Amino acid sequence: MKTSSIQTIHDITPKEFKNRYLVPQKPIVIKGLANAYPAGKKWTIDYIKDLCGSVMVDVFDNSNSNKGSAFTTPDLKMPFVEYVNTIIENKPTTLRMFLFNMFKCKPELRKDFPCPDFFKGILGRIGYMFFGAKDIKVRIHQDIDMSNVLLTQFYGRKKVMLIAPEYSDLLYRLPFNTHSLIDLDNPDYEKYPGLKYIEVQECILEHGDSLFMPSGFWHYITYVDGGFSVSYRKLAHSLNAKLNGLLNLVIYMPYDKVMNKLQGEKWIIKKELMAEERANLAIAKLKEKEQPLEFNIIHTEKTTLAA
Ligand SMILES: O=C(O)CCC(=O)C(=O)O
């Protein structure tokens, strides 16, 4: 596994974003982007708590591993204020909130942080909030609709690890969904040898920073502190990714859900075996590519010695 840091910049124009990052599908951190908007100062955790405190929110339990399939049904419902207090007080919890549709709940928030110009598109009006306590991990996944994502941090720090979609087979992607069972914090190279070949790009987001996650990029997130962020989405740039997103939503995810219901653990084992086969094939292809090079070196050395 090779690791590098995601490039950081301080400013960006729509043209630069399109040419340097969106079209080549390259991740980038834009430092302090939110500070150019009223939300940069205004959206403290207490402000959000006071504004949305009485709203009943869906909460998901990370300890309910939901092995190999998407979290779709919340484990609990509670007043927002109750959940946010666990973050503010830094209390340990396995509960997190994701895909909280903030603008539906409080439309007045939109003017404080509208979708930045360079990221505008037909999905630009959908803003989701994500909340988590210190040390919460967001398991490695791709977003099911394969959209591009702009994730902006407003409170606390978050470590994000990204892996390009071309490594999906080597990451042991489970068929029919967008998850993998590998643990990037403790990569088990014996069980998952494909991990030796993947490249991870990482960053730590602090207050106001925005991360562009290109379409289909795998992400694994650790809440360094309790905190919250907001994401905007933009349709995938390539037709292929758009089509994959659509297939995930209308065919693969519903099929996976039905099979989970019908076969339970058996279905997961089948998917794991399929993931392993795909990874072994990808490893064999990589080795095949390396071989002619080794052969050439040995061959050249022998010819030189003979001369
Ligand atoms: O920050 C989080 O809690 C999760 C973010 C995420 O997975 C996403 O934006 O797709």
Can you tell me about this structure?
There is one protein chain. With 307 residues, the chain is an alpha+beta fold. The chain has one domain: Cupin (Jelly Rolls, Sandwich), CATH 2.60.120.650. 33% of the residues lie in helices and 25% in strands. The chain is built from 7 helices and 14 strands. The chain has helices at 14-22, 39-42, 45-52, 80-88, 102-105, 239-263, 265-306; strands at residues 2-5, 8-9, 28-30, 56-61, 76-79, 95-101, 127-132, 137-141, 148-155, 158-163, 199-205, 210-213, 218-223, 227-234. Strands 2-3-12-9-14-7-6-4-5 form a 9-stranded mixed β-sheet. It has a 5-stranded mixed β-sheet with strand order 1-11-10-13-8, with no helix packed on it. α1 (14-22) links the parallel β2 and β3 (28-30). It is globular and about 60 Å long. The two termini are 40 Å apart. Residues 303-307 have low confidence and may be disordered. The chain binds 2-oxoglutaric acid. 2-oxoglutaric acid binds next to β7, β9, β13 and β14.
Describe the secondary structure blueprint for this structure.
Layout: E1 2-5, E2 8-9, H1 14-22, E3 28-30, H2 39-42, H3 45-52, E4 56-61, E5 76-79, H4 80-88, E6 95-101, H5 102-105, E7 127-132, E8 137-141, E9 148-155, E10 158-163, E11 199-205, E12 210-213, E13 218-223, E14 227-234, H6 239-263, H7 265-306
Parallel strand pairs: 1-11, 2-3
Antiparallel strand pairs: 3-12, 4-5, 4-6, 6-7, 7-14, 8-13, 9-12, 9-14, 10-11, 10-13
Short description, anyone?
The chain has 307 residues and is α+β, with helices and mostly antiparallel strands.
Tally of helical segments = 7
Low-confidence stretches: 303-307
The name of the CATH superfamily reads Cupin
Order of the strands making up the biggest sheet: 2-3-12-9-14-7-6-4-5
Known CATH architecture: Sandwich
Helix content: 25-40%
- Under CATH at level 1, the class stands as Mainly Beta
Write the H/E string, N to C: EEHEHHEEHEHEEEEEEEEHH
What is the count of β-strands? 14
Largest sheet: 9 strands, mixed
Rg result: 21 Å
Q: What small molecules accompany the polymer chains?
A: 2-oxoglutaric acid
CATH topology grouping: Jelly Rolls
Beta-strand portion reads: 15-25%
